[in-house]
Amino acid sequence: MARDTVIGLVGKPSSGKSTTLNSLTDANAKVGAFPFTTIDPNKATGYLEIDCACARHKVSDLCKPNYGYCRQGKRGVPIMLLDVAGLVPNAHLGRGLGNKFLGDLTEADCLIHIVDVSGTTDAEGKATRGYDPLQDIEWLQDEIFRWILGNLMERWPSVVRRHRATKSTTLETLRQQLGGYSANKQLIAKALDLLPGLQPLQDWDDATIQKVVRSFMDVKFPTVLALNKMDHPDADKNVSKIILKYPKSKVVLTSSITEVLLRKLANQKFIKYDSGTEFIDTIDDLGPESGLKPLDDKLRNRIENIRDLVLYRFGSTGVVDLLKAAASLLDLVPVYPVRNIHNFSGGSGNNVFRDCVLIKRGTPVINVARKIMGDVTIAAIEGVGGQRVGEEDTVDVGKNDILSFKIVPGGGN
């Protein structure tokens, strides 16, 4: 069975990584059973918010997921987050927790780099003013590059000798060398496709090897830049500088500390807050019948400042958009396996769309079946309305994304 998608969170000390992680793994969102069978101390369950199929089919009142949550057609799908610790300069040389930091990275399919865009913390996370956060982005990319390149160059002469002796293809040789980074053959082939006209591997010079490593990094570690502390007065000029330097990067502006505070106030019944939006309501807006608690002047002023400086200006705290950006980079779409294709139930009871899995767009439905059910013999695959779906048909949003798999009796191994 395919492993779960893993999104790694990286960031220097005091960048807001822990606060962002807390906001992405909000304990109050954890409705339903726990989806992952094993979880390490540095892993957590995040929730990718999507438009649930229940809204499309007008059965939202019956939608009760086994994992995550669904609220009026907005579904939180569990996704594995990896808190990558030990982010310090010269990690590739083993400084700090460097070896563990880089080793943990191999498990990630995508990175969210939490950058302190206010410039109020230096490279070590100590308080300062006027620091250039561009350095943090360049530093992270350079650490990963030096780590992979160093590992490769250390054994390059023997790699070339073996390549010649075995008459291997470039793809096969690189698969052997880069497979340790949790990279399959398809991923390495994609990296090579980005470099047309490559010389035979035995003729590569240092510059060519470096180009190959850079291309591999682009495919293996696609990165969302989370520009945190966006509401700081110094943030604007740094945001502009970063977007100009990295025009092709996925960039999300965030204020994770604001998101955590708003969720806390909502849980304490001081406000009604729709996460991912600009909307906050208080007892002043909704009246005593809302059940909200009254505000003192200090809290009222704080909420007004949040409205003016964060929500009205930026549209939201940005945190909900981080996992959406990561899913977009990975081209993930939600797929709903159901027992009964006609009423979308799980086979017993009336609740619908009990399960949802994240699948790469364009995946054949037979591969979806294997990811969900393991090595079983499929007799038939049905889509909405009971229509037969071919094994090689592919999934997309609204296309073959609701599926029922019929298993041959005794067909499991």
Textual characterization of the structure:
- With 413 residues, the protein is of the alpha/beta class.
- It folds into four domains: 6-130 and 222-255 and 320-327, P-loop containing nucleotide triphosphate hydrolases (Rossmann fold), CATH 3.40.50.300; 145-217, Helicase, Ruva Protein, domain 3, CATH 1.10.8.470; 264-314, no CATH class; 332-407, Ubiquitin-like (UB roll) (Roll).
- The protein has helices at residues 17-24, 53-56, 98-105, 134-154, 156-166, 170-178, 185-193, 206-220, 235-245, 256-267, 283-286, 297-314, 319-329, 365-373, and strands spanning 6-10, 43-51, 69-71, 74-83, 110-116, 223-228, 250-254, 272-273, 280-281, 332-337, 357-360, 378-382, 402-407.
- A hairpin with a 2-residue loop joins strand 3 (69-71) and strand 4 (74-83).
- The chain is flat, with a radius of gyration of 24 Å.
- The mean pLDDT is 90.
